[in-house]
């Protein structure tokens, strides 16, 4: 679980996903709805809550390559891949070992 903000009662709102040891997420929404902000909050919360031996991040941007640029230059030991302006084939190659 990762804290992602406060609810209307000023209590921490936690994001919990996945089953067992395999966790994946998909964030969708219209332009300007806060998807990128949510992803940055999740990544920061995850990196603070878990060490690099517990959490591996594979970050691939399939658009203009701006969403994960800061993670490419930052020293984030959790990040195994930070790919900007990626082709769909890269995403498939990242997911292939997970999906079998």
The number of distinct helices, counting runs of at least 4 residues, comes to 3
Q: Mean pLDDT across all residues, rounded?
A: 81
Number of strands: 4
> What order do the strands of the largest sheet run in, or round the barrel if closed?
1-2
Can you tell me the overall shape?
globular
Strand content: 15-25%
Total number of domains: 1
Spatial gap, N to C terminus = 26 Å
Largest sheet: 2 strands, antiparallel
Spans of at least 5 consecutive residues with low confidence? none
Could you provide a short overview of the structure?
Helices cover 32% and strands 18% of the residues. It has three helices and four strands.
Please give a structural write-up:
The structure is a single chain. This protein is an alpha+beta fold and 100 residues long. The protein has one domain (2-99). It is built from three helices and four strands, in the order ββαβαβα. The strands form two sheets. The chain has a two-stranded antiparallel ribbon with strand order 1-2. A two-stranded parallel ribbon has the order 3-4. The mean pLDDT is 81.
List the helices and strands and how they pair.
Elements: E1 2-6, E2 12-15, H1 35-49, E3 57-60, H2 69-73, E4 79-83, H3 88-99
Parallel strand pairs: 3-4
Antiparallel strand pairs: 1-2
Characteristics:
100 residues; two-stranded antiparallel sheet; two-stranded parallel ribbon
